[in-house]
Description:
By secondary structure, chain A is mostly beta strands.
Amino acid sequence: ELKVEQNPLFLSMQEGKNYTIYCNYSTTSDRLYWYRQDPGKSLESLFVLLSNGAVKQEGRLMASLDTKARLSTLHITAAVHDLSATYFCAVDGRERGAQKLVFGQGTRLTINP
Amino acid sequence: GAGVSQSPSNKVTEKGKDVELRCDPISGHTALYWYRQSLGQGLEFLIYFQGNSAPDKSGLPSDRFSAERTGGSVSTLTIQRTQQEDSAVYLCASSLFARGGYTFGSGTRLTVV
């Protein structure tokens, strides 16, 4: 079974600090997605990582992918309150011959002034 | 349209009634997913349509749930004899092709009373 695990699930941090969210997955995949979700809203696409060693940055967020370790990270630099949201990673994989996009549990990020 | 459109945005129904949730994907997108998100939880895969292939129904939680996609475009998720545990946000996503970047709709918030 394709599993995607994020940690931490909850993260409370102060503005200006750096932190990393980790996303591990259980099967071979070369395509990983990061999404942001604000309370009561749908999912907003942040990054699509397509190959081993891929690194993408947008503002204070940087995502990377290590397909050999089956690990992606989402790094937050000098956090600001506006980044408070829930962040999901998702992996494209095949399970029982079927293509499926499987999500992690989400990391609820709260950034305090 | 410019994005994935879902209707209704909110639905309150009585236990035991049937409901239909609609998803209009981005024009030309061949892949379409339905997910369910319970309060404060991650995304649970329900069903996946890819072009004219048989849908992957492996995520449907019971035989009360069914979905169809007409003409490779609009999809309807039907829940028969709704139960309180069906209360959740139902999200639809579409992609230009299998394993492409996915765009999510705003979701339908279903409340079963």
